[in-house]
Specification:
Blueprint lengths: L1 H21 L7 H29 L1 H30 L4 H9 L2 H9 L4 H16 L4 H20 L2 H23 L12
Helix pairs in contact: 1-2, 1-8, 2-3, 2-6, 3-6, 6-7, 7-8
């Protein structure tokens, strides 16, 4: 049962993120996409944390470091979704929202600008850890590494086709990982002895 829930989490998070991108309003998240994005972050957390747990079984310091980066990335995803939600709810322009954040630099840095990059960084870290541990095949970790570049590029530039490519890559990778989790085939290779 747990593997089914973990696999569902690994699928649902990226799927909801991909749906949210289709609902952007004039290259902004808007109210609906932000709500879906927030739930995507929560939905994907259980499976993502499980992946890092499996990597902890292989090399504890890799799993622990990745887990911290992943948690910061989840915080960034939730924070940006909430920012979009409140922008849409109160009909605040992008400029006004950025000006408001600039008026509170310490808080904005702690909530938005530092955790925000942690999500693509966590994708890259997961790709490297999956490759190193041989927990996933090279097409899986290579696609995940590519998505770690496409994701921030698409969100910074608000280029929809790049966002869809990033979302599709992430969804494909996490679907492959979900299949491995569901089948109980996510056991890392033994760590080499020094």
């Amino acid at each position: 049962m747990n593997n089914t829930l973990r696999a569902a989490s690994l699928l649902l998070g990226p799927l909801l993120t991909a749906v949210a991108t289709f609902l952007w309003e004039d290259t902004r998240h808007g109210l609906t996409a932000s709500v879906i994005g927030l739930y995507a972050t929560v939905a994907g957390a259980y499976g993502t944390l499980y992946l890092w747990d499996r990597l902890t079984a292989w090399k504890p310091w890799v799993g622990a470091t990745g887990l911290v980066i992943a948690l910061l990335g989840l915080l960034g995803g939730a924070a940006f979704s909430l920012q979009g939600f409140f922008e849409g709810l109160f009909d605040v322009s992008k400029t006004a929202s950025l000006d408001a954040a600039a008026a509170h630099p310490a808080a904005a840095n702690l909530v938005l600008w530092l955790p925000g990059p942690a999500y693509p960084l966590s994708l890259a870290a997961l790709a490297i850890a999956l490759a190193w541990s041989r927990l996933a095949s090279w097409p899986v970790w290579t696609a995940l590494l590519c998505s770690s570049v496409f994701f921030p590029l698409s969100r910074i530039t608000r280029t929809e086709w790049v966002a869809h490519v990033a979302d599709l890559l992430i969804l494909a990778v996490f679907a492959a990982l979900a299949l491995l989790v569901h089948r109980g085939r996510l056991d890392p290779a033994p760590a080499p002895t020094p």
